[in-house]
Amino acid sequence: MIVTLTTNPSVDRTVTLAGELQRGAVLRAASVTAQAGGKGVNISRAAVAARVPTIAVLPAAKDDPFVVELLRDGIDCRPERPAGDIRVNLTLTEPDGTTTKVNTPGAVVAPDDLDRLAAAVKQRCRQARWLVLAGSLPPGAPDDWYAQLVGDLADTDAKIAVDTSGAPLAALASGLERHAPTLMKPNGEELASLTGADADAIEADPIAAARAAALLVDQGVEAVLATLGGTGAVLVTGEGAWHATPPPTTVVSTVGAGDSSLFGYLLGDLRGASPAERLRLAVAYGSAAAGLPGTTIPTPLHVRPELVEVRELTVSPAPAQN
Description:
Blueprint: E1 2-6, E2 10-17, E3 29-37, H1 39-49, E4 54-59, H2 65-72, E5 76-80, E6 87-93, E7 99-102, H3 111-124, E8 130-134, H4 145-152, E9 159-163, H5 166-174, E10 183-184, H6 188-195, H7 199-204, H8 206-218, E11 223-227, E12 233-237, E13 240-245, H9 257-270, H10 275-290, E14 309-313
Parallel strand pairs: 1-4, 1-8, 2-6, 4-5, 8-9, 9-10, 10-11
Antiparallel strand pairs: 2-3, 6-7, 11-12, 12-13, 13-14
Helix pairs in contact: 1-9, 4-5, 6-8, 9-10
């Protein structure tokens, strides 16, 4: 069972452009789609497609069309009373796969709103193998809310994965020696911001990415899955480090690729796979998502793990700075 928490869900509206994005111009759209989304929701979608039991916890009215859509799609959705309307995020996708996102902030929350979500998650954790805390925090939430929740859930049996960015990610990282999640999934830029490494070097060099990820493992995180775009992904655990190279992929949209990668890793763990095989499945899912339009989440039929190359890395400490 995978329980997901999406504190700031969104209606993801994707506009596929007929040509390149040009500032100040009148542009033509080839298509427009909309889907109930958010990082945790996307992971629950992937779980349903793979026939993995999942529960999606999120703030929404029970009769909101957002919830109705999730239930229609077979997602066991547990909505908690929201602070306001669900936000709308806009994605502009160019023919070559270049993606521009405009994310709105969402409704301002009060402590009671966050308490309801925390209580709902604690209740569902009793039956979960994994709890995923995913996405941005809504306005009004303290930056360390995810970090606090990880600490509050320390006595549960569920493994905890966190995929966030910005100030919430920094707050989580600052408290790792007290309460660390089982898994963190930064991208290259996020990993650089946490470790002081160079973002370009991390994106281009798997060894640099693994060395940076190992700093988080040294602070108590069991596994760090760092997604590196076209370079693939790196996984670092206490057992070692691995790099996976994606198969050739015609990129259509990168929206949801990171979420799909995280699900692939969780699926591998649920199957009892080795770290290298978990990474293989993560990259296979991420690549499949990048080859699909809009926010389409891949099904197992889209995923080709046999085309993903995985190699073990030997990671030495970073050279001392003069």
